[in-house]
Write a structure and sequence with these properties.
heterodimer; A: 158 residues; alpha/beta; two-stranded parallel sheet; 8 strands; B: alpha/beta; 5 helices; elongated
Chain lengths: 158, 201
């Protein structure tokens, strides 16, 4: 046995695996960065209401988000306290919705354009007026598959 | 130079630690999927079906929500917790009741010719209704349909509706059953056009 060992030591050195952690870390950072990049910074207060019959949205890539709510505290000085619409990263008005819909459709594959779900993330304190306007606008541009974003709960109270 | 070799720190487990972190981030980022109530808007106004004005009063379940978040269901003041039962009674009424919706014989694959109620739920809210209340009403209505579908699926196929939905992707038989249940209790929630001041629409 000792003879065997000695022979082995003089043979080929093991492959250096010291760089393996670096490769994995690189992957890790890549995922960390890309997932952060997609998140939009919320400029509106957004606490969605709770419901019992919620469904999961299956394909994340086929969901476009529209945020509605009052501007957050430190933006209220500039934008007031009335509910606003946020599309991607900026405050927008009702008139910008058709363009937003077109842009979102353009960024998807042609075959999947009609399968986009438009997820309305509306703050629970918002009044229906602005929500109805947004819905009418979406309807006009044939964006019909809606999702009212809600959190799951077990019971609804009065 | 007696002992030159200082033993190296074994970095082999470093990769494992990094992998663990990587997997953690992968998992947590996909966990953040959106959940909500999925609805379909009617197509734009110029494509309205022709028989739109033929719907009889008895086939409509009317829900009004005012700016103070109060409910008026079929002319009755009601609490949100009572809505589900009332809606269920309307959707799943027996044929032949003159105050309840009419029925139509429909051929459904997997069930044969059955009597299907031609109910419609009409929801009208005020511009001042809170979104929270609106979601509550929507939730109760979807819940009413889901419960009825569950009961019906249990009775006909001995499986809850949710199970049929889950398995419909992998099995054609399940998909057929799911569609049959869906057709037996079609979800028809119509949201009235928002009221415009100074005119009817």
């Amino acid at each position: 046995m000792s003879k065997f060992r000695k022979k082995g030591k003089k043979g080929q050195p093991a492959v250096n695996t010291a760089s393996l952690p670096d490769i994995v870390f690189m992957l890790l950072f890549f995922f960390m960065v890309t997932t952060v990049m997609r998140e939009t910074t919320l400029k509106v207060e957004n606490i969605t209401p709770k419901a019992t019959e919620v469904q999961k949205l299956e394909k994340k890539s086929l969901v476009a988000y529209l945020y509605i709510g009052n501007p957050v505290k430190n933006l209220q000085g500039a934008f007031g306290t009335a509910p606003r619409i946020q599309l991607n990263d900026a405050f927008k008005t009702i008139d910008d919705i058709p363009l937003f819909v077109e842009m979102e459709k353009d960024s998807r594959d042609e075959a999947e354009r009609n399968k986009i779900t438009w997820s309305l993330k509306v703050d629970s304190k918002t009044k229906m007026g602005i929500v109805t306007e947004v819905k009418q606008e979406l309807r006009k541009v044939n964006a019909l598959k809606l999702n009212y974003s809600t959190k799951k709960t077990d019971k609804i109270f009065n | 130079m007696g002992r030159r070799e200082i033993p190296e720190i074994n970095a082999g487990s470093m990769a494992d630690i990094a992998f663990l972190l990587l997997i953690f981030f992968l998992v947590t980022t996909t966990m953040d999927t959106d959940t909500g109530l999925i609805r379909k808007l009617p197509p734009p106004i110029d494509e309205l079906p022709e028989d739109q004005d033929k719907v009889k009063q008895r086939n409509i379940f009317e829900i009004l929500v005012n700016a103070n978040d109060q409910l008026l269901v079929e002319g009755e003041y009601m609490q949100i917790t009572e809505l589900r039962e009332k809606a269920k009674a309307f959707i799943a009424s027996e044929p032949g009741n003159p105050t309840m919706p009419e029925f139509k014989e429909t051929d459904i694959e997997g069930l044969g010719v059955v009597q299907v109620s031609i109910q419609i739920i009409s929801l009208q809210n005020d511009n001042g209704t809170s979104y929270e209340m609106y979601i509550k009403v929507q939730n109760e209505l979807v819940g009413a349909y889901n419960e009825l579908r569950d009961e019906f699926a249990q009775q006909k196929f001995n499986k809850p509706y949710t199970e049929l939905v889950q398995k419909s992707g992998s099995s054609d038989a399940m998909e057929m059953k799911m569609k049959a249940v869906k057709k037996f209790y079609p979800q028809r929630i119509s949201e009235a056009e928002p009221k415009k001041v100074g005119g009817t629409e």
